Amino acid sequence: MRPALWIFLVGSHAAQAAGIDTQCDQALCWQIAPVVCVADHRSDRCQLDFRLSWQHPEPISLCAELEGQPLHCWQQQTSGELSYQVQLEGPSLLHLKAGDDTRLTRQLSVLSRQPERKRRLVAPWSVF
Amino acid sequence: MMLRALYFVILWVGVITPAHANCTDSNAQEACIDTGQWQINLAMGAGFRSNPLHGGHNFPLWLMPDISYYGQHWFFDNATLGYSWQLRPDIQLSLVSRLNEEQGFFRRQSPVNLFETEFIFDMGIAGPVQKVGVKQELSISQADKRPLALDGGLQLNWFLPDLQLKLNWWHDISQQYDGQHLRIAASTGWQSSMGNWQLGVALAWKDQHLMNTYYGLNTVEGDGIEYRARASWQPEVSLQWQYPLSARWQLLSLWRHRWLNTDVTAPVGPGRFQSPLLQESTVQSWFIGFSYRFL
Questions:
Q1: In this structure, what DSSP letter does residue A84 have?
Q2: Which of A42, B27, B182, B295 has its CA 20 to 30 A from that of A31?
Q3: pTM greater than 0.90
Q4: Contacts A118 to B, Cβ<8 Å
Q5: pLDDT at B108
Q6: Who among B31, B80, B82 is closest to A119 (CB)?
């Protein structure tokens, strides 16, 4: 196997392990990591410190929004970076927009170490 | 009278805030279970379930299991197998299946009484004897060929802040009695310094096919007596008490009283006719003991 392929495979695996992957819309690409927040309990809010970066061959004006709330805007740049801390109550959508045009979307998810709890649908001790 | 009471119940539950079926509210943890994990409890103590049939022995209760598993949709809960959908945060609809419990009165070795039979002793705790005015007493041994049926149906659970409503429609999917039955149940729980309490009421309706298959008699079975059972309303009240002793141990007491064979078209009064197979018109159950949670 050629060395270039080995480098590609190892690099790809490392990026997945770190939770970094690239999404593109034509020439506009972005990376966000991490995208999963792990809480101790399901009812807990989850604090996620994520890092966002984007690249575009031509200067472009973009804004990052989380569930409709603006986080940061860049004016006529070919790349941008953002480190942000957010309290998540549940799955939330992160958008990268050029004006009113949503170019890229990514979901930030919340997982819990505690299993989901449900109501029992049959009365306890119903063999009685 | 019953319709008026039902109207007020519906009116009352319609104006209070619904609770969530996903256990996010903290006051309902007793009835909640972790998904993807078996929960096994075993109760040890003393009690019995009465057998209303002539010649039928009461069922002593020394050990009782409480076994459940809930996945995302599938669940198994004390011999009920189901698949549920959450229609609203407070409402769950389920496809359910289980063995019909009617045969359990006729055969002690019935799968319906599977757990109890292993611990049955010859000396039951006898209930009071009430003879029914028939020419000849008919016993369980003369009519023990009652089928074991598998029921399937729908279940609707509605969780309100202080009240749980459950509606069941069951149909014989094994074509043993070719009938159906309905059950509506309401329960409420509260905590006190004396422990956790759960009060329940229920009303079951069993159609003529079910009642006649199990409680009807032909002339051969009845030695000349023929009885065709009608549809039946069966009200029930129950009370459950639990007192936690540790994370795994608790004191447990259960009581239930069910009225049988209230024929829809039968005259009300002491002369009311009921199946010659029945010696008593009620089924009483009680249990007191300790319970242990394994998982």
A1: E
A2: A42
A3: no
A4: 21-23, 32-33, 35, 70
A5: 59
A6: B31
